[in-house]
Amino acid sequence: MLRIDWNRRTCSRKGHITYAPDEAELRDRLHARTSLGDAWRCLRCGDFALGEPHGAGPAGDAPLVPRGRALRDLFILRFLAVERALRGLLILVVAWGVWKFSNSQDAVRRIFDENLSVFKPVTEHFHWDLEHSPIVDTIRRTFEYKHSTLLVVALALILYAVIEIVEAGGLWVGARWAEYLTVVATAAFLPLEVYELTEHVSVLKIGTLVLNVLAVLWIMLSKRLFGLRGGLAAFEAERHSASLLEVEQAAGTAPGRLAAPA
Fold it and tell me: What is the value of pTM for the model shown?
């Protein structure tokens, strides 16, 4: 089974992150002299990179660089962020359509009734009562909605779209508040998605429901939200335990290979 090296994969795209700590012993373990010049160990992938360090100072001030599982989790979060962003944009388009329709219901109704008759010969050939079909009945019911009701629907859709887009932005940068918002907002709409399935089953609806349930469970458990698996304290401890600098502080490790400057 192919195993992805998230550390080197990220460094190959974004470059290495090096740091020169003030502590002499730790500095020596992260530094190497070569015939090509000084090299510093990358805090993400562990390889040595030629060139000056990107930062320097006390070890406690070094950046906490995501590594390994944290990078994989960030990739998943960004996949969810893209899905949320696309959904938010689609909802905005629907909201715009509802608003436009609210301002021209009578005109749309006339166009619909005039063009409906065009399809009647075809539907009668197949013995389908077009006038009383569920689709036509649903469309005609929307014509009866008040202008104010449609405006409320449009505003509600805009609010929903904004929530989705804000979620997307927060998830993209891995913000913890966005993880809470995603779990709460997604879980709040799960009963509605289940209800829609009782009305009409489709592959898309089932796939969306499964994706949302898995997303809620994965975020809650992997990010230790709401106190699960030790909560925030355990989550931060896990992040720091994966830090290369903290590993080096705890004990020496075998040197990595020499990497070219990124």
Answer: 0.69
Q: Pairing mode, if any, of strands 55-57 and 258-259?
A: unpaired
Distance of CA 86 to the CA centre of its chain: 10
Tens-digit pLDDT profile for residues 39-80: 999 988 888 999 999 889 988 788 888 888 888 888 889 999
CA of 112: how far to CAs of 25, 106, 126, 135, 190, in Å? Answer: 79, 10, 21, 12, 34
Q: What's the Cα-to-Cα distance from 132 to each of 28, 43, 72, 88, rounded to whole Å?
A: 82, 67, 52, 34
Confidence of residue 262 (pLDDT cuts 50, 70, 90): very low
Residues facing residue 49 across a β-bridge: 40, 259
Q: Could you tell me the two tokens for 176?
A: 């913890």
| pLDDT, tens digit, 9 for 90 and up, residues 168-216 | 999 999 899 999 999 998 899 888 888 878 877 788 888 888 988 998 9
Distance separating alpha carbons of residues 29 and 25, to the nearest angstrom: 7
Q: Locate 141 and state its tokens.
A: 């019911």
Report which residue type is found at 54.
Answer: H
Give the tokens for residue 107.
Answer: 């005109």
